[in-house]
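Notes, p. 3: input format for complexes.
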Amino acid sequence: MPVSVAIVGPPASGKTTVFNALTAGRGSGGVGMVDVLDPRLDRLEEAVRPKKKVYAQVRVADAPPGSRAQQVAAAREADVLLVVARCFGPDSDPAGELDSVGLDLVLADLASVEKRLEIAAKEARINKPGAAAAAEVLTRAKAHLDAGQPLRLLELDAAAKEILAPLFPVSSKPVVYVANVAEDLAAGATLEHYAFEHRAQSAVLAAALEVELAELESKDAAEYRASYGLTESGLATVAGAVWQAGGLITYFTAGEPEVRAWPCEDGAPAPIAAGVIHTDFIKKFIRAEVTSVDELVQAGSMEALRAAGRLRVEGREYRVQDGDVIFFRIGG
Ligand SMILES: Nc1nc2c(ncn2[C@@H]2O[C@H](COP(=O)(O)OP(=O)(O)O)[C@@H](O)[C@H]2O)c(=O)[nH]1
Ligand SMILES: [Mg+2]
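Output follows (332 residues plus magnesium ion):
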């Protein structure tokens, strides 16, 4: 499954320009699928020589033009939000822009939490099972939102999260604050500070410049970037921040038909990680055979490692690590 990212932000902050930069102009209807390049996958390809190479994918959705409510609705479907603030041109005020977008998300959640709380409070009065516990969580959420704080900064255990889940909260989603700068990269500093204070990830992106670079050969683009003091593509910067914000790691599968990178929740037990490939694999998981990119590149194939007894055998409790190369044994 691709990682789903929604772009939000105030008008004219450069959202569509960011969208075009990330999708290299290949999006359509406001949606684009983007490959997240990864040199580890390239090394696996060289070693294994598979028929196919599949990078981790991100689905990027541009903010729909129209009302703030429409933007919030679109954001509800995403795993991670990219909040774009204008850090170029006259009177840029990224902190003010981010405050205002943050408030939109908080108010949207406050409305649905208040509505649900009224119902839960009534249900609690007639002793409906679970209603009192729900009202307690909703009351806590309401107080937090009333204070202008997003739900992502409220500590909730699994049971509390389950109570809020049917409301499809949007302020609980991980965010990456994107400083859309012109030539002056230093203009992103205010936003980076803001992100730090708000415990969010940030990325500085020269979106208009990246749109131009996307049209160049990768070698020319790299040289051009270097002249601006940029060490990686805008997409790589944003993808890194999205992975961080979303608490994601990448593991790999490497067989003859294809080598592939899979985004996966950090700390996921092996069956859940296998479920990223196919939901059936969660139930049918038997064991994971695990190695590293380096080991596999040395040996040339999973089979060679298995024959040499050098694949680690891990069970249901194993927590998949970033950079693992895995063969999942699945039952019938
Ligand atoms: N100088 C400069 N202009 C930009 C940049 N990004 C966007 N713009 C301009 O800002 C205006 C609004 O951009 P757009 O992407 O349509 O904003 P949206 O309303 O947030 O989607 C357009 O005229 C863009 O050309 C940038 O990085 N540098
Ligand atoms: Mg736009």
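Residues 15-16, 65 surround magnesium ion (ligand 2) (CB under 6 Å).
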